[in-house]
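$ ./design --mode recover --in tokens.txt
reading tokens...
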């Protein structure tokens, strides 16, 4: 099974594509991970169009069976950020619907609980657990990529 994990962000959207095949390999395998960005000089609709284009390209290239999407959570001090992230969240949902791929959403504390056993771990703990689980040489960088891989692993753990 191929799972595409997504950490939606307006400036940077992290993604991580993992494969789960216990018959071939006990640990999940990273197929690709990276970030989607848009030109900061463009207006909002053009930026969203670019993110949609890039995300649809990922769906086309990797044909995931599921998308694991980090759910939006709002921080009172930055309400505009939550709104902008909500736009990207919607883009992911639209592209998934167009490609007929199921989307599963997880709050950050659900992801932490699935990987660490409790819902309040630090970013560093999450990165190290993602590194260990995926048998990587070093923790994934930037944080957006680590978070995307973590949400993909969360979905993989829930499916087992």
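writing sequence...
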């Amino acid at each position: 099974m191929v799972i595409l994990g997504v950490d939606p962000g307006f400036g940077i959207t992290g993604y991580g594509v993992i494969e789960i095949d216990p018959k071939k390999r006990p640990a999940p395998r990273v197929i690709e991970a990276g970030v989607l960005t848009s030109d900061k000089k463009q207006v909002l609709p053009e930026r969203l169009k670019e993110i949609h284009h890039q995300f649809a390209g990922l769906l086309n290239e990797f044909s995931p069976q599921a998308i694991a999407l980090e759910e939006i959570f709002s921080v009172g001090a930055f309400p505009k950020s939550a709104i902008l992230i909500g736009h990207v969240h919607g883009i992911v949902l639209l592209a998934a619907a167009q490609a007929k791929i199921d989307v599963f959403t997880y709050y950050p504390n659900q992801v932490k609980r699935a990987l660490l056993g409790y819902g309040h771990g630090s970013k560093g703990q999450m990165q190290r657990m993602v590194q260990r689980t995926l048998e990587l040489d070093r923790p994934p960088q930037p944080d957006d990529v680590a978070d995307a891989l973590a949400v993909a692993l969360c979905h993989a753990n829930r499916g087992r």
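exit 0
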